[in-house]
Fold these 3 entries.
Entry 1:
Amino acid sequence: MAAQTIQLAAEVAAQLASTKSLHPTQQWLTAFMSTQKSTTPLPALTQTASFRLLSSDIATSLSSDASFCLPPDVSDVNIKERRLQGSVVLQLLGIEDMSKSRWEQIEAIEALERGEGTKGREIIRVTNTEEEDDSGTNVSKGGGPHKLSLQDARRTKVFGIESKEIQGLGLGISIGCKLVVKNAVVARGVILMEPASTTLLGGKVDSWHRSWKENRKMELRAAIEASERSARSNS
């Protein structure tokens, strides 16, 4: 890259790190800058880079340096409690509303597919602007606490539990959504998530989202059928 482009790339990287804790790899940053005009203002470049990172698989776009990732043994249930050091970007692989039955979760997913949201117990029709915020994350109110399946840039997986209500977290959230956990507590291998330690960045990986919706409904129906078979056999 030319000297001017190298300097601009460094400024974009610095902005992404300071505002959203996003640390793209040099390879990703070089490829991104090669598609941009050197005359593009820094704020516009940073916004475009952020949008693309939030729509990517962070295992291919973000640095896997240990300081930006989870400890390898983060899911060790033998460790009673510890606190993560610094900020870690994670991507959402799945979500479960622990307050809803299996059938209620299926109904909630199908309602969102129809463009319906919930307001208390009332089903309402939502427009795109009401359903999504600027980051592209669906805002689904009510329910919870939620259990999340998460992954870092090293593809280390961990579960998170919403210990206190987090605005914007719900079954309507997009799979592939990125979030930052900062100095969060991990208890028995599970991240305890609350507003003070969790920030939703938004984003979505379309193929993951489509696959999750279909697979999740199949899993829930299979679990319901298995439970019904077990109940019949015991009666």
Note: The radius of gyration is 20 Å.
Entry 2:
Amino acid sequence: MADAGLPNGWEVRHSNSKNLPYFFNASSKESRWEAPEGTDMEKLKLFMAQNTRKPEGKIRAAHLLVKHKDSRRPSSWKEQDITRTKEDAIEILKGHESRIRSGEVSLGDLAQTESDCSSAKKNGDLGPFGKGEMQKEFEEVAFALEPGQVSNVVETASGVHLIQRLE
């Protein structure tokens, strides 16, 4: 098997329930969504690109969501009662966008701490999805992106997003 860049004892497995890869250590029986410490991320990215197939007609994307008081559910894992305005949410997201575009931080790393979506724990990764599975505004932008490309601010009923197409 090709080198996945993982520390000794770790392997990549696939979750059937989430339809996403995860990391498993056979000796300690530990499993986790995030790559273990000491992973060579460049080797892992290459391994994943060569060893995972996306379902036909589907793409994979990650996002960073900032909710506001008029979002369809103005609460999150981070904040019980979100009171910021849509304008404030857009300004926050634009700040995140400039950090991502400058190369200071990746969307996935920033999503872990700043996204109001529960996908934050998976670096914002939403897994594979097809047309008709996401909100229309989100889907149109996600499908128009090239792999690796990050969108501008996208508004949906959930809040405001930055989207990165992964596959």
Note: The chain has four helices and seven strands.
Entry 3:
Amino acid sequence: PTDCTDDVHDESPDPFHDSEKALPSKNEQRASDIQFQWRSRDNRKGRHALRVEPDDSPDAKYITPKSTSSFREGLKGIGRMFIQYPYWDVSYLVAIIFTLGSVVWVINAFFVWLPLVDPSTEFPGEIGKAGGITAFIGATIFEIGSVLLMFEAVNENQSGCFGWALEKVLEGGKIQVRPDKEGCSHHHRNKKNLVGKSN
């Protein structure tokens, strides 16, 4: 499935590029059928998945972005995780906070579990004090993440957002499908606050 929140292809300055033959660009593909795939979690996260039936024949009815589920697109997504930090996005904050809470609980396991496995590593107050303090800190971090998760769920866009623009290529008669970031009404585009509306 492809997603309007990702840059799945380079925008051509002319939306009807190569309209004579309606050939897709290098980041697009021909398709015989497309269907919008709605899932509650995707809607909450601002994703707009399409089910695409690729078709290389010139008679294919649609031109769509290439799939984001390929190995190469997966690597691009991982790369974006190291260079993009959408701190305004409540979904991103929930993920970061839950990861931090998990790290604290892994540290907690060293204080509580390691002395049981190797008693020579134990120091005075390790299990009672260090274990208790790190357990409390980890639980507090998870509690903060859970509150933000509730904000995200309450702010859910109930009606759904198609998130895709359809353009008909004039001469080729193909329907071109591309992400419509301006038409997306999910909160993820809003960089002013955590859970406000996008427009």
Note: The chain has a mean pLDDT of 76.
